[in-house]
Amino acid sequence: MELIRSIHLNPVRVKLVEHPQDWKWSSLAAYLGRVCNEWLYRRDVMGLFGVQPDRKLLEFLSQAPQLPKAFLYPGESFPILGGQPFVEEVTRYGEPRRGRRRVYAGRKLSLQKLSEVFCVEAGLGMDELFAAHKGSRQITGLRDQIIHAATRIMYYPASEVARFLHITPPAVTLAHRRFTEKVRLNPRLADELVRLLLENT
Questions:
Q1: Alpha carbon of 175 to those of 67, 83, 126, 187, 188: distances in Å?
Q2: What is the pTM of this model?
Q3: Which of 191, 192, 146, 173 is nearest to 68 (CA)?
Q4: In this predicted model, what pLDDT tens digit does every residue of 68-90 receive, in sequence order?
Q5: Would you list the DSSP string of the chain?
Q6: CB of 180 closer than 8 Å to CB of 71
Q7: How far from 64 is each of 14, 102, 114, 128, 174, CA to CA, in Å?
Q8: Is 11 exposed, middle or buried (0-12, 13-18, 19+ CB in 10 A)?
Q9: Angle between helices 111-122 and 137-148 (to 10 degrees)
Q10: pLDDT tens digits, residue range 99-148?
């Protein structure tokens, strides 16, 4: 999904168009059903976005411009994209082996269930999550994890997550940036979130 976002946002990043669907050589308009393209396997991509895929795909793309360039266009630390046989074949011919990131393949959890999973793991109650703990690093860290999992793994809109946590949308954006920086320094953090979610689905 990150690859889908990266490809469609390339024309925006280099300022060729303001909106990705306006780039005439992009398949995005066809994915959104605005033009007909008979050879495009539209369902393969749109099936990743569940109910109301057109809206969710655009939301997914719109969340990216605030992210650091390194997140959208990673360097040599980015994993080889493909199944294990492909990775083994590529590395056999000289491609340096890089750490594989775990991909979430479980079902989508409700925000309530998602938050409960992280609260139990942290040894905290849901009431503590919603309380005003100014200056509490543990609560801030817990919220950051929930926000990252909700917006980047489960693909909930930031506005919906903000309403659920009783915070503002800018606070969701800030939390995501904090956690993204932690993941940049320690990629295993993201893998641990995926592991925890898979164990609870």
A1: 12, 32, 18, 17, 18
A2: 0.52
A3: 173
A4: 444 444 444 445 555 667 666 66
A5: -HHHHHHHHHHHHTTS-SSGGG-TT-SHHHHTTSS--TTS-HHHHHGGG-SSHHHHHHHHHHTSTTS-HHHHS--TTSPPPS-HHHHHHHHHTTPPP-PPPP---SPPPPHHHHHHHHHHHHT--HHHHHS--TT-HHHHHHHHHHHHIIIIIS---HHHHHHHHTS-HHHHHHHHHHHHHHHHH-THHHHHHHHHHHHT-
A6: yes
A7: 14, 21, 23, 30, 13
A8: buried
A9: 140
A10: 444 556 577 889 999 999 999 999 988 888 887 655 588 888 999 999 99
Tokens of 176: 């995501």
Q: How many CB atoms lie within 10 A of CB 43?
A: 10
Tell which residue, 161, 141, 142, has the closest CA to residue 152: 161
Residue whose entry in the numeric block shows the structure tokens 């109910």: 51
Tokens 């479980």: give the residue. 106
Q: Which domains does the chain have, with CATH numbers?
A: 2-65 (no CATH), 111-199 (1.10.1750.10)
